[in-house]
Structure formats: structure tokens, C-alpha cells
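anyone seen this seq b4? input:
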Amino acid sequence: MIFEKQVDTLEETQALALKLATFVEPQYTITLEGDLGAGKTTFTQSFAKGLGIKRTVNSPTFTIMKQYEGRIALNHLDVYRLENSDEDLGWDEIFYGDAVTIVEWAHLIEDELPKERLAIEITRIGETSRKFLLKPMGEKYIRLCEELLK
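predicted toks r here
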């Protein structure tokens, strides 16, 4: 099952991420795929705001993971630099701890990801327009998408 949502402005992207944050709980995993500049980090920044995170959220490209405290803690991973690596960062603690996790470039650690998750692919279709393909894996993520897109 795949859900699709097109947004035409930055504000609509931010609103989608803010709304998503209202439905998640600890141990939820969201993966983000998209070309450079598609809006993965922008989406994550608004998602973090929706979790009540006050700190500035930026891409953890060089540190692999950043953690933030809010209503629910957030693990923000950018695994771009882990391509062709077999490094174990303590995946169980990351995915099954007390935080929600967002993973950018998730296809690079496919074997480490939880089987149940929400995979989001962002495609740039204009200056501010984006197409979001939401691929829920697991019943709770299907319900999440249905609520999100009401």
C-alpha cells in the first residue's frame, strides 16, 4: 500500500511534518529518501518542532546521528557516509529505545532497519512543490498514514 501527497509550498511541507509528529510514539521509525535538496532535512526540522524540540535541527551528515529532547526524544540519522560499511551503531538501542527515529538515506542500512516502519520518498517536482510517497510497513503505520492524510 502506498499513499501519495503533493505539496506546493514550503509551508505545506512543514504542516505535513508537524501533523505527522502528533501521531508518533517512541520506537516509531521513519525513513526519508530523496535526492539532495529534496527536503529531507527541512521535513525533519518541522517534524522535530512538532515534537516540541527547541534546539536547532540540522543534518547529522558528519556525525551520523544527533539526538534531541522534546515531548518525545528524536534520533536523527543521516547514514549517507555508512555506504559499504558494516559498522554497528547499536541499532537495537536506536530503533527500540525511548525515541522516535528518522533516518535519511535509509536504503544504505536496509538490513538494519526495523521491518515495520514508515518509508517516505520525497521527489522535487518544482521550486517548492514536492511529491511525498508514503509506504507504511506494518498495521500501525497504515493507520498512521490514514490519519495523516485525512
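The chain has a mean pLDDT of 91. DSSP finds four helices and seven strands in the chain. kinda curious what u guys think
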